Every structure is written in C-alpha cells, then in structure tokens.
Amino acid sequence: MGRRLINMIKFEKDEYLKMGAMVVSKRPELEAIAEKLHQRGYSNLFLTGVGGTTAEFTSMKKVVENHSSIPVYCVNAAELMLEGHKQLIRNSIVITGSKSGDTKETVAVVKWCKERGIETVAITKAETPLAEIADHVCLIDSSGVENTYLSFYYILLKLAELRGEFPDYAQFASEMEHVHEGLVQVKEKFEPVAAKIAKQYHKEEYQMWVGSGTVWGDVYMFTMCILEEMQWKRTKAVSSPEFFHGSLELVDEDTLVILVKGVDACRPLDERVEKFLNQYAEKKVIIDLSNYLIPGVDAKFADICSPMVFETITTGRLAAHWEHHTGHSLAFRRYYRQFDY
Amino acid sequence: MGRRLINMIKFEKDEYLKMGAMVVSKRPELEAIAEKLHQRGYSNLFLTGVGGTTAEFTSMKKVVENHSSIPVYCVNAAELMLEGHKQLIRNSIVITGSKSGDTKETVAVVKWCKERGIETVAITKAETPLAEIADHVCLIDSSGVENTYLSFYYILLKLAELRGEFPDYAQFASEMEHVHEGLVQVKEKFEPVAAKIAKQYHKEEYQMWVGSGTVWGDVYMFTMCILEEMQWKRTKAVSSPEFFHGSLELVDEDTLVILVKGVDACRPLDERVEKFLNQYAEKKVIIDLSNYLIPGVDAKFADICSPMVFETITTGRLAAHWEHHTGHSLAFRRYYRQFDY
Questions:
Q1: What residues 164-203 of chain A have any CB closer than 8 A to a CB of chain B?
Q2: How does residue A4 score in pLDDT terms, banded at 50, 70 and 90?
Q3: Are the beta carbons of B293 and B262 closer than 8 angstroms?
Q4: Which residue of A has its CA nearest to B234?
Q5: Which residues form the SIS domain (chains A, B) (predicted)?
Q6: Which of B144, B176, B208 is where one domain is finished?
Q7: Cβ-Cβ contacts under 8 Å for A216 (sequence gap 6 or more)
Q8: Which residue range(s) make up the domain with B211?
C-alpha cells in the first residue's frame, strides 16, 4: 500500500520539483559567493529589504544567530537609507533580494551602498535593475518562499561553515538536494488541514496569529503579505512571549486565534500559549510544526528548516484554500503596484 | 494674557511635577552606574524585558544607535533565556526594568544572567524581587512612560558621552531638569485632540496605527498595552515603510488609520503614508509630533524626546479619554495577572 494520493488545488507537482531542482543547481554559484566574501573578510552582515524580504530576513537572522557568531543585522531598506547605521561600515556586507528585481526601496538601498563603497549581494531575477547594480548577484527566478530560504542558506550557512561554526553544512546541503520531494509530502499531509481551516474560517473579519523563534518572521509575513495584502483580512501577528503582555486580553468566544507551534528552542513559549488557548479560546487553530518535519532531512536541522516548512504549508497551500473559499483572487490588489504613491 | 487654562481629566499636575522632580533627582545615581560600567568596560549592551519594557527598549535602541556606536541588542527576556545569544558574553551588560519589580520573565532573565557571570542593571521599585538580585539597581517608583525613558537615558546617553560620542549630553541632561513643565504644556495642547479622537472613534472595533523611527516602539506599545490589554480593542501596528507592503490594502471607507508623524530621519516615510491616506482613507487621524515639541528643550534633541512626547500625549492623555468614552476601565483585565497561566 502506497501513500494515499492527494489532489492539491492549484499545485503542479512536476513544475514544483523542476523549480526546486533549478534552485538546488544554483548551490555552487551561491557557495562561491560565500567563499569570496569569506576570503575578503567582513565585519558584519546587513540583511535588508522590504515587505516579504524583511520578513524572510527576520527568520534568517535568527537562524544565523542560532548557528554562528557572525554579527547580523536585519533592517528595513527604506529606514536604513534615511537613518544610516553606525555598525554599517566599509567592511560590512549588505545582502538583499527581490523576486521582481525592481522593488523600489531595494534597488535604491543597493545604489546607496555602492555610493558608500559597501559591497552588496543580491539574489534576484535576470535583466532587472537589481541584477544590474549589485556587486555579487545570483540570478534565480523562483516562486515558493521555501526556495528563497534555501537560496540564502547556501550563502549564510556556508559562511558559518567557513568560520568553523557550522560543521554540519555539508550534510545539510546534501540533504537539501532532495528537500523538495520531502516538502511535497509535507504539503500533502497538511492539505486536508488547510482545506478545513479555510472552509471553517474564511468569513472571519479578524484573526490573530501567534508564533515565536525562527518562524516568527514567517507568521508576520503570512498575516501581512497573504491575509492583508492578498485577501484584505484584518490581522494581528504577535509573538508567543509578547502575547501575554497585551493581546491575550482580546481572547474571547468571537476571536479566531491561530497558534504556530515551532520546533526550536522557543517551543515552550508556544506551549504556554496553547495551554492558555485551551482554557480560554473558543475559536482556535493549532498548527504544530513537529507534525510536519521534512522526510529525508535530519531532525537536527528542524529549526533551520521550520521557516521553509511553515511557508510551504501556509503561503504555499493555505493561501490557495483561502482564495478558493473567499473567491478573492490572490492576484488582485487595490493599490499595491497599481500606481505610484 | 496667559495661556488658556485647560482642565485635563484624570490628571493631577502637581503630582506629575512632583514625580518628575523625583525622577530628575535620580540623575546622579543613574550617571554613577554609567560611570561604573564605562570604567569596567563592556563589549555590548543587551536591553531585555517583556511587553511595555520591550517596546520602550525598541525605541531606546534606536536612540542609542542614532547617537553612538555602542553595539546594542533588544531581545525579549523569555526568548533570550531559551535561545541564548552568541553576542551575549561575559563582557556584555544586560539592562532591564520592571515597574512592578516582579515581572516573572524579567526577574528570571536577571537570575539567568547572574548564573552566567553577566552583569545586570535594573531600574525598578524598592523591595521587589528584581531590586534584590540585579547587580546595579536604581530604585524609582514612577508612573508615566516618559519617566521610564528619562531614567534610562541618564544611563544610556551618559555612556555615549563617556565614549566621546554624545558631547551634547550635559546640555541635554540640564534641559531635562525642567522637561516635565514642558511636557505639561504639550499635554495641554494635545488635550482637545485627545478628546476629539476618543469621542469620534471609541466605538471602532479595529484600528491601524502607523509610525516609524524612534517612536515605532511606542506605536506598538500603545496598540498592545493600552488599546488591546486595557481597552480590548483589535489593533494593528505597522511601521510606515512596511505599511506599503501589505497593510495598505486594508485601507477603505470603514478602516480607521491613525498615523504618527515623527520628527526624526524617518519622517519622509510617514509623509509618504500621509499622502496615501489623504488620497484613499476616509477615517484617518494624523498626529504630527512636530506640533508637540517640548518647550525649553533644544530642537536638536527632538528625536531623543519624541518617544517621551508620544507617550505623554497617548498613554498619558489619549488613554484617559478612551476610557472616559468607552466606559471600560483601564485598570480592568480579564486575564493579565489575574491568575497563573
């Protein structure tokens, strides 16, 4: 008996695996960037961008901090240009990315860095303003946020290995060669859960999302970029420890709370929220990432992979079900990129 | 003709000034802590706490970063204990505070630091668990978030002066001797605005608050600690640059958006939001902090003082009007500190 075949709406498995293979094929190129940066030497890393990129970098910063002593800063690109930063010096490396390659603030911050003699790295699409001006560029035209994580990990975790701080890098990178097959299985396992959540709660006007640690940036991203931007739903993202210092008072019989239980050191903070919700919340969903570990990937990499897992099941699956039930296309925007503002 | 007398609800001017004088009187004690830390030497500062304290530290981190090259980290206390931090070393200084002196996570993080031989500084109330265990303690039993800022500035900005990075410290500290009289005038100027906002919008189920730079931590705090915790109102706090990468899509004729225009380098980001709101938002409030500069304080300190100003007019005034109109006591909690969870 094989696994039960699950038909996932708006998902093309073959295309997904093909794109995954393309991203994996960029490994040598991305590692070469890390080698160059390591040889050149650097004082610290600045991860900068806007919107989804800032959110991804929030999680990546945590991953780097958990596995290396590289000083790493995550700063919104627009703020960085206006405020500057006393830790941003000629020997800093500024790392950024943009799916479209033309995000205004991201292109501007790279230009701003170049004027100051600060080296920049970008992962983006070919023949775009960003691809043209960054010092070190890797051209990747992928979808799926998990692929963004994987691409940057080939640089960031390689840097940690080169510093002698992440000796497991080779094993990690080797396991990533087949991570997309594993992620498909994770998606399939989550599919009925996604369908159920969207069916039951798509009419909610407001929902609170709670999470912590390495997936906190992604919890923020899902509320901001998917639910707010693409579905026009009012949301609140709050971290598990901060939940108890304000947002808990909103919990009542009408308020939907969605808790993401992580698989890193902060998990006890999520469990504390779970205990509270079980006592006081009527409408709640608990997504436990320990049920969605990636087959074929060593459990010791669970914290590193948890943003990839969270994204593959939410932005990658839950969003499609949300769209299906609300009838509100994920592609439709009132304002964003519709005109200048 | 003198200034028009304004009767501010739930505000005792004499008590406010008396408390202000008490906080100012702590200056030598707080500066002495800075002197000791400077002489001892340190690699970096960790600002840690939970809830309101984390929010205040978010703004203070920005102020320190704007005026000094001291490496400064702001980390939630509960996360810090579970994750540790590779930049937190024996030569770090951990700075924290708690109004009550018994905030569970804050007391625990100081204990956790001591076990690791890391020196701790706390500003808190006498005869409390926190006062008893921190290495350097200043006992201040004050209300008014502006007083929390002032207390910590006497340490943080003095440290910057000792590093030769903030030569204006003496002028700043001297002007702070009369800052509370100035803050009363600021409150009086804002009073009719606070009354109007609360009267017009106290029935809103949801409100979005937008701000940036040095007051971003405070915008977060007002939504979290006042509107959510004390008034049970659904909120979203979003920074001015991030607003354009998700939350803007929620703007319609029914959604209340409150924009705080700051007085620091990030002001153009707030102005961009203002321009957008003027075109597309029906229900909006714009609080321009340039209208509330503190009399008697040099304009060059506007960024440092803007969190104090924002707090004195919102947590200090708007909250009282909100309570007046909603009839929901700011003191009443469903869950917070009502029992263990």
A1: none
A2: low
A3: no
A4: A250
A5: 33-165
A6: B176
A7: A58, A59, A62, A239
A8: 179-326
Query: Minimal CA–CA distance to B286: which of B298, B306, B303, B271?
Result: B271
Q: Write the CATH number for B45.
A: 3.40.50.10490
* B162 and B61 part of one domain: yes
Half-sphere exposure in the Cβ direction for B67 (13 Å, CA): 28
Owner of token pair 């911050």: A109
Distance CA B218, CA B256 (A): 19
What average pLDDT does this structure show over B203-231?
Answer: 97
Q: CB contact, 8 Å: B83 with chain A?
A: yes
Task: Please report residues of B whose CB lies closer than 8 A to that of A266.
Answer: 79, 82-83
Joined together, the tokens standing for residue A239 give 């971290």
Which of residues A147, A176, A205 is at a domain's end? A176
Kindly state whether B326 is in contact with chain A, defined as any CB-CB distance less than 8 angstroms. Answer: no
Mean residue pLDDT across chain A:
96
More confident site: B50 or A7: B50
- Per the structure, the count of domains in chain B is 2
**How many CB pairs below 8 Å do chains A and B form together?**
178
List pLDDT tens digits, range B83-116.
999 999 999 999 999 999 999 999 999 999 999 9
B window 35-54, beta carbon within 8 A of A: 50-52, 54
Residue B2's pLDDT is what? 47
Candidates B72, B79, B227, B232: best to mutate against A (most CBs of A within 10 A) is: B79
With a cut of 80, say whether residue B11 has pLDDT above it.
yes
What is the ipTM metric for this complex? Answer: 0.96
**Residue pLDDT, tens place only, B295-322:** 999 999 999 999 999 999 999 999 999 9
Instruction: Reduce the DSSP state of residue B92 to 3 states and report it.
Output: strand
Residues 6+ apart with CB under 8 A from B243: B210, B273, B276
Angle (deg, nearest 10), helices B302-313 and B145-162: 170
Helix or strand run (H / E) with residue B133: helix B129-133
Chain B (257-296) residues lying within 8 Å, Cβ to Cβ, of chain A: 264-266, 268-269, 272, 275-276, 279-280
B213 reaches A (C-beta below 8 A): yes
Return the ∠ at Cα B42 (arms to B38 and B43), rounded to 5°. 145
Chain B CB contacts of A268 below 8 Å: 82
Residue A332 contacts B, CB cutoff 8 Å: no
- Could you read off the pLDDT of B254-280 as tens digits, one per residue? 999 999 999 999 999 999 999 999 999
Interface contact A335-B251, CB threshold 8 A: yes
User: Is B79's CB within 8 Å of A269's CB?
Assistant: yes
pLDDT value of position A184: 98
Q: What is residue A263's predicted lDDT score, i.e. its pLDDT?
A: 98
